[in-house]
Amino acid sequence: MNPHIVIIGAGLGGLTAALALQKAGLRPLVLEQAEVLGDVGAGISVTPNASKALISLGLYEGLERWGQAVPVQEIREGITGKMLMAIDRSDVRTRYGAAYYMVHRADLHAMMVAAVRAHDPDAIRTGYKLVAQTADETGIRMEFSNGETMTADIMVAADGGRSAVRSWLFGDDPAEFTGHVAWRFLVPAADAPSEASDPGSRVWTGQDRSFVRYAVRDGALINCVGLTRTGLWRGEGWSQTVPAADLVPEFAGFVPEVQALIAAAPSGRVNSWGLFIRPMAPAFVKGPVVLLGDAAHPMLPFMGQGAAMAIEDGAVLGRCFAAAATPAEALARYEAARLERAGFILEESALGADRIQQNGESKTRFARNEDSLGIFEYDPATVPI
Fold first, then answer.
1. Would you say the C-alpha torsion 107, 109, 114, 119 has a positive or negative sign?
2. Which of 92, 131, 226, 363 makes the best surface tag, with the fewest CB within 10 Å?
3. Which of 128, 214, 334, 378 is catalytic?
4. Sign of CA dihedral 322, 327, 330, 334
5. Burial of 149 (0-12, 13-18, 19+ CB in 10 A)
6. 214 catalytic residue (yes or no)
């Protein structure tokens, strides 16, 4: 079996799929609409379930070089700073089979681009925005904004939560604003309070709001993310910047460390966007097209599993092609392996805000977490397909 496979989107999920398919002996082509590669964003959690996928694809050394292993995760009351829960992560490698990393998203993306190109220097092309497609029993025909057309046996849609391919397959699902707004920024460690460089991550929580910080790039930068439920509408997309002063009233009364981090936002600006919810796709496979990552199951960020699920998808997809006798069998195996898992994580992520964003000192609301739910035990490199 040697199908011609085109992957739409060079994000983390699309690149994982490319690596996994290359490992299976195939030669996928990744088409990215941006003219220049370079992932946006800031810090990202690479939880053990995702780490195992990436390590199976040869990225252990890169994760160790660019990632910060997490020794502890703290949850504190936002106004008093009182510790509500400390999760010891010192044994995570032994317990789950891989480390829990915090990494700058751009560093992880660059590492994966290099790995894909090391297998095939021509595997990724930029400036290919998909504008039309048709499919039949022989495969799929694609048209791009640069005027080129292309045919393939299989198309992997890794084009994000607002996937044009998903809309073409199943129609447009209405996006519902959740009332939650995300705020994200990076602070140079030299400009941050000294305690912000403490190892591990720290979350402060209060009614309808939470704030997390952790270090990336060997401690040079402090990644900061605020999540608020205020009804303040924002459009989707990380590219929107607003004055950091807009964030001040959202976290009024929170501990001095949070206030100092907001005050240190570079150029007094932060990224801010609304969180919208969409249902999971009714199917992950239709004919020669397969959905992957947020195109299949758009996640809210309250369990930090959005990127991890895309990475899991990509790793499992490659294994399915390695194990199957035909492309159709590979796609059927992929869908069967991923539907229940993705649906479960999507549901838990949607419920996460209600668990974390409360007043009070009760620890019981944190009991339903990644450990108790077995999320980190999942291994994309060995799970039955």
1. positive
2. 363
3. 214
4. positive
5. exposed
6. yes
Q: How far is CA 351 from CA 175, 276, 302, 356, 365, in A?
A: 17, 14, 8, 9, 11
215-238 pLDDT, tens digit per residue, is 999 999 999 999 998 766 666 665
User: With contact defined as beta carbons under 8 Å apart, do 87 and 203 qualify?
Assistant: no
* From 65-69, 96-100, 236-240, the region with the lowest mean pLDDT: 236-240
Which residues, 6+ apart, have CB-to-CB distance to 29 below 8 Å? 4, 5, 6, 7, 123, 125, 152
Residue 124's nearest CA partner among 114, 132, 133 is: 114
The string of pLDDT tens digits covering residues 235-249 is 666 568 899 999 999
Which pLDDT does position 135 carry in this prediction? Answer: 92
